[in-house]
């Protein structure tokens, strides 16, 4: 069972020059430090993320990554320059927050896109990571992005045909997220909205294994819908702004970090083999494969994640 939602004891804004990054801290100010890396990209650090930690044991830093949530400017704003929103910029923000709060090392907790960011941060700053707890684990390589689009297009050909319908003919055989990002950055407001709806419909299709897609209430918000679609396609179209071996080729740097990875067997958002091979190279990592759960996880995933933070918080 997850813990009750705890209220922040501190919050503020990290000024980076080009972005104002909103952060908050929950739990025990003297507790074990942890940082939460939300998914999306662009989903925001909603209160739900706080519930994986015992507020008596942990001091948890959460923040809305550049371009989303309570950070400004939003990716949905017409004048926002997405070139200042990359994985390297987000890693720098994590480090700036660590320094701001006087933390030496902290547990890194993340899910989905946040797991890619957590791994990228860990291999860049291994001395600053005490443990890793990651779920829905991905590394956002070209192989995984192609899986998310072209491979899943073979599973859901009708929905994939709808997704491709908006893409110009000359771009239909290539990088689908990059092509969509160009549509989403168009000066044509109607085209931007059609593209945002199209991408979010594909997200809903992949999130529902059987039957018609379950509509997500957050996509009903036009501002969220556009910002989310822009950020996802911006990062996925650039394969996470990482070299092909940006994570897999640097795992030697984190072999001494205890880690817990959780993935659903039914998680079709990326191939399970990626995290399985990753875990084989990390002697202190435990991979839990949950047979009956998908990318969003459910009761077993929640229990495993809370068990991990409880264990590391002792």
UniProtKB/TrEMBL annotation:
It is found in: Cytoplasm. Keywords: Aminopeptidase, Cytoplasm, Hydrolase, Protease. It comes from the Bacteria. It catalyses: Release of N-terminal proline from a peptide. Its main location: cytoplasm. It is an enzyme of class 3 (hydrolase). Gene3D superfamilies: alpha/beta hydrolase. Its EC number is 3.4.11.5. One of its GO terms (molecular function) is aminopeptidase activity. Residues 35-295 form the AB hydrolase-1 domain. GO terms for biological process: proteolysis. The active site is at 112 (nucleophile), 267, 295 (proton donor). GO terms for cellular component: cytoplasm. NCBIfam families: pro_imino_pep_1. Belongs to the peptidase S33 family. This is Proline iminopeptidase. It comes from Intrasporangium oryzae NRRL B-24470. The lineage of its organism: Bacteria, Bacillati, Actinomycetota, Actinomycetes, Micrococcales.
């Amino acid at each position: 069972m997850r813990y009750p939602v705890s209220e922040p004891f501190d919050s503020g804004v990290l000024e980076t020059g080009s972005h104002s990054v909103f952060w908050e801290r929950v739990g025990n100010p003297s507790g074990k430090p942890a940082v939460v890396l939300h998914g999306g990209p662009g989903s925001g650090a909603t209160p739900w993320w706080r519930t994986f930690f015992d507020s008596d044991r942990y001091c948890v830093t959460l923040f809305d990554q550049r371009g989303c949530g309570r950070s400004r400017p939003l990716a949905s704003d017409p004048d926002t320059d997405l070139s200042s929103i990359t994985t390297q910029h987000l890693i720098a923000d994590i480090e700036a927050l660590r320094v701001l709060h006087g933390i030496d090392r902290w547990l890194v907790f993340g899910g989905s896109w946040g797991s890619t960011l957590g791994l990228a941060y860990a291999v860049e700053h291994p001395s600053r990571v005490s443990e890793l707890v990651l779920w829905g684990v991905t590394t956002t390589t070209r192989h995984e992005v192609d899986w998310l689009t072209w491979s899943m297009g073979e599973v859901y050909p009708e929905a994939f045909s709808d997704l491709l319908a908006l893409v110009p003919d000359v771009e239909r055989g290539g990088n689908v997220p990059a092509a969509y990002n160009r549509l989403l950055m168009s000066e044509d407001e109607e085209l931007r909205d059609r593209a945002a709806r199209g991408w979010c419909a594909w997200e809903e299709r992949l999130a529902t294994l059987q039957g018609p897609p379950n509509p997500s209430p957050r996509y009903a918000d036009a501002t969220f819908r556009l910002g989310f679609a822009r950020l996802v396609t911006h990062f996925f179209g650039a394969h996470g702004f990482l070299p092909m071996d940006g994570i897999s080729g640097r795992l030697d740097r984190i072999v001494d970090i205890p880690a817990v990875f959780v993935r659903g067997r039914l998680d079709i958002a990326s191939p399970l083999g990626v995290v399985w091979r990753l875990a084989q190279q990390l002697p202190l990592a435990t991979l839990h494969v949950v047979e009956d759960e998908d990318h969003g996880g459910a009761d077993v995933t929640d229990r495993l994640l809370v068990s991990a933070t409880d264990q590391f918080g002792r």
